Amino acid sequence: MTLFIVGWFRPRLPFGLRLFAGAVSSAILLTLTSQPAYSADDGVCGALRNGFGPFDYRTATPDQRSTVELPHFPPYVESLKKGATSERIGHDIDFVLRAFPNHHRALMAMAKLSRREKRSTPLGANYPIDCYFERAIRFQPDDPMPYGIAGAYFAQSGQRDTALTYLEKAGELSDGNANLHYNLGLAYLELGLTERAVEQAKRAYAAGFPLEGLKNRLRALGAWQE
Fold first, then answer.
1. Residue 21 included in any domain
2. Over the stretch 174-185, which tens digit does the pLDDT of each residue have?
3. How far apart are CA 141 and CA 73, in angstroms?
4. Range of the structural domain that residue 48 is part of
5. Which of 9, 110, 189, 209 is most buried (CB neighbours < 10 A)?
6. Do 44 and 100 belong together in one domain?
7. What is the domain count for the chain?
């Protein structure tokens, strides 16, 4: 199963919201370049301080995860079929992302919900999707996944330079995760950077990624050699 969602929705925002989104993107880039220590209170996207957590998704205990995921992130919420504690799916996913700002699957679900609803801020959510990326990166700047997810989002929304910044950072921080490299390859294809896509594909398949979608797309371009 791939981690990233391709075919991102690029919301058409009113002018004031476009200015806010630009400020959010700038804040994420500042986080990206400066690599600050965790701060609960800074940032244009709200404090990270939370009643439960926040916890690093990668190192959270099973009990910490289940306390949040069982009531707020069952499979039917993750697949965006319906909410669990609210009629707004975004409310439950937001709850997860406040407890675990870098929860990879919840970040993906929120991005998918934004696309489906054609809203920068999904119904029930507290922030625009850009802010959920910013909060994840501000919280754990050494986690490659949020960079990769943000990079794919910006690639699909046509923000090439910003996308490349995040994709390159994700690759730099990668610990050999096959899912990450596979989806970095898809994102580079979206940007028309075939050689980089091939490089990421090789890393993904060397790490045991089972699906051949990326390989098949590269074959169709005449860019893949066994």
1. no
2. 888 899 999 899
3. 24
4. 38-132
5. 110
6. yes
7. 2
